[in-house]
Amino acid sequence: MDCxxxxxxxxxxxxxxxxxxxxxxxxxxxGGKTFYPPDWNKVAQSVALPKRNNCGxxxxxxxxxxxxxxxxxxxxxxxxxxxxxxxMNAEGADFTCVRCHTTKGHxxxxxxxxxxxxxxRKSLIDDDLISRITCESCHTHRPHEPGVKANDHTDRVSxxxxxxxxxxxxxxxxxxxxxxxxxxxxxxxxxAEHGKYGKHSYHTKKGEFRWxxxxxxxxxxFNGTLEYVLxxxxxxxxxxxxxxxxxxxxxxxxxxxxxxxxxxxxQPYDKVNKxxxxxxxxxxKEEDAYWGSYDWQKAVASGMRYxxxxxxxxxxxxxxxxxxxxxxxxAPKENRLSCNECHSRExxxxxxAGFYMPGRDRSAILDTVGWLATLGAVxxxxxxxxxxxxxGRRRKGGAS
Length: 400
Prior knowledge:
Layout: H1 3-7, E1 28-30, E2 33-35, H2 40-44, H3 52-59, E3 103-104, E4 107-108, H4 135-139, H5 159-163, E5 173-178, E6 192-194, E7 200-203, E8 207-212, E9 218-222, E10 225-228, E11 241-242, E12 244-247, E13 256-270, E14 275-276, H6 290-293, H7 296-306, E15 315-325, H8 364-399
Parallel strand pairs: 5-13, 11-15
Antiparallel strand pairs: 1-2, 3-4, 5-8, 6-7, 7-8, 9-13, 10-12, 13-14, 13-15
């Protein structure tokens, strides 16, 4: 990373893939493309506040390709229409990323790691110096018209849960990545296969993939914190390893129900030490690199050695899960979720346990009380109507 990655506006400032973050010092070829040295004068004279393409150069293509990682971040957001993202719609508000991801001394307000992205939720009405990173920052905690029931949900349900009905609506995102299938050859050479959406379904270098579009999120209680498995963390290979864990619960007042993409796959681990493995993948001249020899044993041993970690000498593969919070691709209000998409037995929140939700759950006591209250209300209405009818007849009789 350097200043020009974010501030160049010529679109010509590019890094050479194998020079550790440096541009090509002279015309150089890689992967069938030629990379040229920057025109430094032209690049330096173009600097300005970051635009969407500056941020997207990394964040749209993270993980090795367009839409691989996040699901709600891909190149379709360079010029999205209203239905894809109401905030970034090129014909509408046309927000750039820095409209919400504000900075203080180049510290960019963003998502979360071990420390939450924000300590308290405020709106610009409360404090015009806040970092604008939550929906409440602009919309407040009562964003709907007075009397609308959705205003009563904002203490427990994130805005994203209702207003991002699906992600990867324009371009597909990678949902499954199986490294156990890597290394297969055709006629003694690496090969690739394309599947649905024109994306790789298989590649010798990386294994088998599954891509999906218009994906319904998974939902979790989330308080703004994610905890991560480290290369030194002990794992249980008998079940999928959550490489990051969504922190939050119904009993946590800072938690709300948020949508997530869950990226699943299989990858190497140290069977003896029961830790995830560091892998030496790429080096054009080293046989220890997996893409040089397609030998997992060499690649794992070399990667662990480089990381300064003990390797037990035996590797295996374990299923993994990685959670990405979904917060982009906000749909227009007319495309928001309807109430019954969550408040039903087979709704989106069917698997989110630990609380009672009307329409989804059954409780004999609550159902009995509810029916008694309903019958009592109906009886009260009938008695009131009967009383008015009797009183009216008496008045008519007295008048005659």
